[in-house]
Amino acid sequence: EAQVTQNPRYLITVTGKKLTVTCSQNMNHEYMSWYRQDPGLGLRQIYYSMNVEVTDKGDVPEGYKVSRKEKRNFPLILESPSPNQTSLYFCASSSAVYEQYFGPGTRLTVT
Amino acid sequence: AQSVTQPDIHITVSEGASLELRCNYSYGATPYLFWYVQSPGQGLQLLLKYFSGDTLVQGIKGFEAEFKRSQSSFNLRKPSVHWSDAAEYFCAVASSGGYQKVTFGTGTKLQVIP
Fold it and tell me: Which positions ≥6 away from B38 have C-beta within 8 Å?
């Protein structure tokens, strides 16, 4: 089954404790993206990747890091999380035709 | 910079009534436009997309959208709404040119009443 998986689905952490949210897709897609969703703000793109070792900033990259060492994986790293990063995070992947497939989401709470 | 405006935060329609959700975009070249739906507690699912060609595009679940360049709009329509259509709907624009900077609107929450 074609899918995008994210782990963990729920995470509660404390300010400053480094964390990684994993994202994996099994569709051999070149493009992958991370978004955050906040009430009233819709989805905002954090980072995107056009292929292995090729990444670029989206609209809200501050406080986040990404890496793309393998085509199927695109982890999101918060090196020093802060409460304003409490949000619902989505990973997405697509082929060159832009049709994005979204993961189920990761709800992150930073206290 | 590209942007998307969904002017209606919340819309309520009766089951069986027609629906139109508004979307206005700002983009310098020919945009790639999308509508996604998000059911409560779920991820996003693509309803339809426009890249070029026929300005009226058909999607899944009986939805359609019309691209109007002169009005910078890409409104979503459905002739008869079902209770299962209650969800949040997002319009999005993507930059052309081989990379995927995508900008979403803030969403329109649809409530369907019997």
Answer: B44, B45, B87, B88, B89, B90, B107
Contact B99 A45 (CB under 8 A): no
Contact B2, A45 (CB under 8 A): no
CATH code of the domain in which B85 resides: 2.60.40.10
Residue B103 identity: T
Task: For A1-17, write each residue's pLDDT tens digit.
Answer: 889 999 999 999 999 99
pLDDT (mean) for B54-75: 95
pLDDT level of residue A97 (50, 70, 90 thresholds): low
The number of folded domains in chain B is 1
Per mean pLDDT, which of A80-84, A93-97, B36-40 is the most reliable?
Answer: A80-84
- Residue B53 confidence (pLDDT): 85
Contact in structure between A58 and A50 (CB atoms under 8 Å)? no
Owning domain of residue B21: 3-113
How far, in Å, are A88, B48, B67 from residue B33 at the CA level? 23, 9, 9
Q: Does A50 touch chain B (CB under 8 A)?
A: yes
User: Distance (Å, rounded) from C-alpha A35 to C-alpha B58?
Assistant: 26
Residues of B in contact with A41 (CB under 8 A): 106
